[in-house]
C-alpha cells in the first residue's frame, strides 16, 4: 500500500514539473514552482534539467541542471537534529619524546590480595624501533624489500607462527596508541583540563572525561594516565584511576602534586593504553613454540593404524540434549577424547545450543574421570559467568573456582566460588588452586595461572567457549604453558560465520590478526572440513537444530551461511506469536523490510553516523508493538522482550533518546529495559522481537565501513548476527538501494522479492 502511495506522489511531482516550450528573451525570468506533499518520513531528492535552444528550428541544445530535495520528518526527528556541526577530532600535534621525570601516584586500595606467586616471567615486549620502518613500508607497498613485510604476507604456518604474531601484535599496539592519543588534552575540543578535589576523599582529584562511560576512551579502575601543568614539561604526574563515573574519573596522585594543586589549575592530559593484555599474548605466542604445541595448533590426520576410541553411553544431566543427536554425539566424542591431540570443535550456528553442549561435556568429564582438572574459558567475563552459572547447576560449588581479573567490572560473582572477597580479588596460592576440579576464567586471566607456574599437564581438559570472538593469541593463553600437547584435550566452541575479534589496526586486520583460531582451523585444516558433504564427527560436530527463531527469520542466513542445514526447532507457540500481527505485509511471515531513504549525519567531533529517518520509523514500530499488546490474539509483550540493533554508536544514542520520549508518551516505567546496542553487544543474545537499523543511506561511505570494519555493508558476519537474534518477529529498516551494493544484502533483498514471501519487503 505504502509503495503505491509513494509511486503516485512521484508521478504527481513529475506532472507538476512538465514544462511546455517557452520563449525567453534577454533578461527574462521564468519561475518554476514545485509542490511536495508526503506523510512518510524520509529524504526525497529530485533532478531538474532545463533544456535551452537558440531557436525552435535548430537542434543545438544546452542544459542547466538543478538538484532539489525535500525531507519529511516528525517533531521527534527535529529533536534528534545534530547538536553541533560535525568537526573531526584531530590528533594533537606530535611532540617529540623528551626526557622528563614521572612522579608515581596513589594506587587504589584493595585491588587484589596476591597469594599466587609470579614464578614465570612476563617480559615487557616493548615495541622495537624497526616497527616504524615497517609501517612506512606497509603504507607504500613496493617501496622497500623489508623481510618483515614479506613475513606478514606469508600464510601463517608453524615455522613462522611466533614471529608473525609478534609483528601483528606490535601493529595492533601501535594503532591502539594512535587511537588513545585522540583523547589527549589539548585537542580540537578542549585546550586544557581542570580538576577538582573529591569532596569525600581529599586525596583524590576528579577529572571530567566525557564519553568515558561508553569506553571513549576505555578507562578501568587501576589504569593510569599522565598529567602536567600547562607550560611545564620537565615533570609528569602519574594518576591511578580509583573509580569511573558517568563522565569523569577519580584519580590518585602523589602528595607532591596535591601540595601545590589549587582549584582552577590548567593541565595537559595524556591517556595511556594498558599493555598487560598485549604482553600476555606475546608470551603465549612465544610459549606455543617453546612447549611445542604444533600437534594442537596445526593438527594432522591420524595414522591409518589409529584406533577409534569407544564411545560411552551417557546419561546426560540435561536430559533434553539426549533428544538432539548432534549434541549427544559431540558430548560423547569429547568425553572419549576422540580428537586428541587435535582440538575438538563444536561448530554452533545461532541458537543451536553450543554453550549447553560444552557445559554438559564438562559435567560428564568431571563425573566420569576422578583424575580430571578442567579449565573452562571464554573471551569475556559475561560469557565466563554464564559457563560458571550453568556448571554450578549440577556440580558441587566446592569443586569450582571462578577467577576474576582485578580490573574486572560489570560482574555477577558466582556465590562463594569466586575470588571476589569484599572489594578485593584474592588469588590463592598455587597449591590451593590445584585442588579445584574446575576453574573458570577469561582467556587473558588464564595468563595468571601461567605466571603462577601451574604445572604443565595439570589441566587435563581446556574448554574455550565463544572461541570465534577471540584473536588466536588470546585463545592460546590457556594452552601455552599449561597444556600437555600429547595428553591434554582442547575443546573449542563457536561459529566462524558470526563476529570475530575486534581489531583496531587495518594492517593487523589485513594480515590475519582478525582470524580466530576456530576460523583458521575450519578454513585451512583438512580435519575440520567436509568430506563428501559430511564433517568427521571424531574432530568436529556441527549443531543444526535451531531453538530460537521462526523458520522465516532463519531462512536467508541458513541459505547464505549454513548450507541450508539448520532446522527450525523453536517452541511453536513462542516463535509464531507475531504471525498474525496486523502490521505484517503478509500474515504468517514475521519478517518486515521497511525501506526508507534517510540522510547520513554526524555531529560535533564524533565520527559515528546516525540516521534520523530510521529512528522515526523504529519508534513507530515500538509504539505499535507496545500499544497493541494483548489485542487480537497477540501475546503480551514488554520492553524487555524487544531489542534494537544499530551498527553505529551515535545511532544507538539517538535511539535511546527517542525511546525516552516514547516512554513518556506511553507512560511506560520500564522503557529502559528495551535493550539498544551494537551488533557486538547482541552477539549471543536473543529477543522475541528484534529491530535492525542499517543507518547507511549514502554509498559514499561504504569503502570507509569496509576499511575500518564498520556498519553492515561489506560485513557479512555482522549481518548474520543482526538478523539471527529474533525469535518471533524481525523488522529491518534501511535503504535498499544502498544495501543492494553489498552482495549479502542484495541476496537477502532478492530472496524477499523472488520467492512467494515477497511481501516481506515493505518499501516506504
TrEMBL record:
Residues 122-182 form the Helicase MOV-10 helical domain. It catalyses: ATP + H2O = ADP + phosphate + H(+). GO terms for cellular component: P-body. Signal peptide: none annotated. Residues 324-412, 431-505 form the DNA2/NAM7 helicase helicase domain. Residues 514-736 form the DNA2/NAM7 helicase-like C-terminal domain. The keyword Signal does not apply. Keywords: ATP-binding, Cytoplasm, Helicase, Hydrolase, Nucleotide-binding, RNA-binding, RNA-mediated gene silencing. Its EC number is 3.6.4.13. One of its GO terms (biological process) is regulatory ncRNA-mediated gene silencing. Pfam families: AAA_11, AAA_12, MOV-10_beta-barrel, Mov-10_helical, MOV-10_Ig-like. The keyword Ribosomal protein does not apply. It is found in: Cytoplasm, P-body. GO terms for molecular function: 5'-3' RNA helicase activity; ATP binding; hydrolase activity; RNA binding. It comes from the Eukaryota. Residues 23-71 form the Helicase MOV-10 Ig-like domain. Residues 190-271 form the Helicase MOV-10-like beta-barrel domain. Belongs to the DNA2/NAM7 helicase family. SDE3 subfamily. PANTHER family: CANCER/TESTIS ANTIGEN 55 (PTHR45418), CANCER_TESTIS ANTIGEN 55 (PTHR45418:SF1). This is RNA helicase. It comes from Sphaeramia orbicularis (orbiculate cardinalfish). The lineage of its organism: Eukaryota, Metazoa, Chordata, Craniata, Vertebrata. The gene is LOC115423215.
